[in-house]
Specification:
Length: about 375
Amino acid sequence: MRIFLLSLLLSAPAFAAPVTQGPPNVPEKSPAFAGQTRIDAVVSKTPLVVTEIASGLNKPWGVAVMADGRFLVSEKAAGRLTIVAADGTKTPVTGTPATDARGQGGMLGVGVPGDGWVYWSYAEPREGGNGTAVARGHLTGSEMRDVQVIFRMLPTLDSVQHYGGRLVFARDGTLFITLGERSIMAGRMQAQDLGSHFGKIVRIGRDGSVPKDNPFTAKAGARPEIWTYGNRNVQGAALDSRGRLWEVEHGPQGGDELNLIARGKDYGWPTITYGEEYSGKVIGGGMTQAPGMEQPAYYWDPVIAPSGMVFHSGKGAPEFKGNIFIGGMRSMGLVRLVLKGDKVVGEERLLADRKERIRDVIQGPDGALYLLTDAENGKLLRVVPR
């Protein structure tokens, strides 16, 4: 295994000017409140050591720690799950359903919540297109048995983008699944449609059942799994110390968002956004606020392309307790946010010297952070204080 040292300037001030990130794509748009974007930079005092556990992973997307200390990694482009041992040995898992690995599809989120099942999300090939699906099974050796598909995004659409796919296991035994709005206009406009799963976060039982206290179970025409709507493409989500769900979602050109998720709320896409089309054209009349639509707790312009997030417990690094760590693909590093209450008060960009796209970040039982790099020769990394 190779070890890299991340050098930090211990004598630097705790707070400084905003993180260097270049000019905004949409400078004419202003934040709704002070500190909603480009907050002061912070410099951590905790030096970090990065250890490479495994390489040669084919576009890894999600990682979970199993009870025996091994890792379960989804290889997006290969459309498979892979067991990774502490010494870097990789063993492919057999018995999982076929995936549509075109574009942003393939094998996506993975979870091992300790209830005896392994859960994963994937782009499911279907007649007429595809859609995000979630399955679970029992892992026996390297074979997945008793596979059950517990959720299917509807309707089916022929698109190869914006699947979402993160899985978050709530304390009450339910499962949050983050979804995208499929990017193309036919899907985008359904983010505000409660009859569609596109651009939603959904909440189900771990067996696929619909919880009775979901917000739209009694609304005619609404899909009962929906928890929130008006989301764009959510590829990172995590629970805070109070058990509340937060997420990070991709904006268009500009306007990546951090949101505190609340039952039944509308997060605005595509009616309001701090971004613009990649062509430079205006989205939604150029509005950033509208009645009944939630504001992001924080946003980035230019984008970081967020994927994967975790709240640090402080184990092994008290300085990081309650901080959010987010994988940055466009920003090529690990983004750290410092919170005071529910407000972002500081931002730091870590591991930027490695120049690698970070696809997922989790915290293991040992307190270490485990990262996946987004590449055809993707890596599983362990990050701990020196």
